[in-house]
UniProtKB/TrEMBL annotation:
SUPFAM superfamilies: P-loop containing nucleoside triphosphate hydrolases. The keyword Cytoplasm does not apply. Residues 2-239 form the ABC transporter domain. It is a peripheral membrane protein. PROSITE patterns: ABC_TRANSPORTER_1, ABC_TRANSPORTER_2. Signal peptide: none annotated. This is ATP-binding cassette domain-containing protein. Its main location: membrane.
Length: 243
């Protein structure tokens, strides 16, 4: 359903992605693991053109964008198929929780306010925030703010949700509530790609693990194969740090 073919990306002379090929099936939960600076976030951002790859092709569903000659319309179409959950939540501070979730539905998807509200309330209830509709982000904990971010992504009904280190800005005691929500929606069959350092979570929730280092995919496979006995020495060394 999702295909990245020969994706390269450089920042100046620094080649951060060195020809990445990645296929994701519909309904898969993919965790991308790897050391800091290995290119995980950049790869995620290339998928919806928050970063523009230098070369390669991105396909979501039946829609392919060639990175050499992308039109604005093609980028817009690709973005509409994805939703991103950011490390630092990226909520509008002057809008309520409900307004934050409704925003994309009304402004980008041109839905009526009534319909947008109905969907948004449903999604906020799903992440356990049905009682916080009128609160402002500053009145919420980091974990609650990130759950708003997840409700906002869900409401868009995208073909894939991209999570960029969704718990790494949180105090340790708030990580669990966010991982629980992600695990709950993973069970609903939504395609998800998650950059994370939470190894226990990756092992439990994903059905496809990708290990990256220095701009390449070193190894990928089922979680039980990667965590149970990775083939590559680099993967084993990395995972050893977490056991
Ligand atoms: P990871 O998510 O694995 O930690 P990133 O994709 O964030 O890695 O970054 C990979 C490399 O690209 C790092 O060396 C980082 O400094 C560099 N990088 C990322 N974004 C930019 C940018 N906008 N400009 C310059 N360098 C960047």
């Amino acid at each position: 359903m999702i295909q990245m073919a020969n994706i390269t990306k450089s920042f100046g002379k620094h080649e951060v992605l060195k020809g990445i090929d990645l296929s994701v099936q519909k309904g898969e939960v993919v965790c991308i693991l790897g050391p800091s600076g290995s290119g995980k976030t950049t790869l995620l951002r290339c998928l919806n053109y928050l970063e523009r790859p230098n070369d390669g092709e991105v396909t979501i569903g039946d829609f392919t964008v060639n990175c050499k000659r992308p039109s604005k319309k093609a980028i817009h179409t690709l973005r509409q198929k994805t939703a991103m959950v950011f490390q630092h939540y990226n909520l509008f501070k002057h809008k309520t929780v409900l307004e934050n979730v409704m925003e994309g539905l009304v402004i980008v998807q041109k839905q009526s306010k009534e319909k947008a509200k109905e969907t948004s309330v449903k999604m906020l209830e799903k992440v356990g925030l049905g009682s916080k509709l009128d609160a402002y982000p500053s009145q919420l904990s980091g974990g609650q703010q990130q759950r708003v971010g997840i409700a906002r992504a869900l409401a868009l009904n995208p073909e894939v949700i991209l999570f960029d280190e969704p718990t790494s800005a949180l105090d340790p005691e708030l990580v669990g509530e966010v991982l629980d929500v992600i695990q709950k929606i993973a069970k609903e069959g939504i395609t998800m790609i998650i950059v994370t350092h939470e190894m226990g979570f990756a092992r439990e929730v994903s059905n496809h693990v990708v290990f990256m280092d220095e701009g390449v995919i070193v190894e990928e496979g089922k979680p039980q194969d990667i965590f149970g006995g990775a083939k590559e020495e680099r993967t084993r060394q990395f995972l050893k740090r977490f056991t």
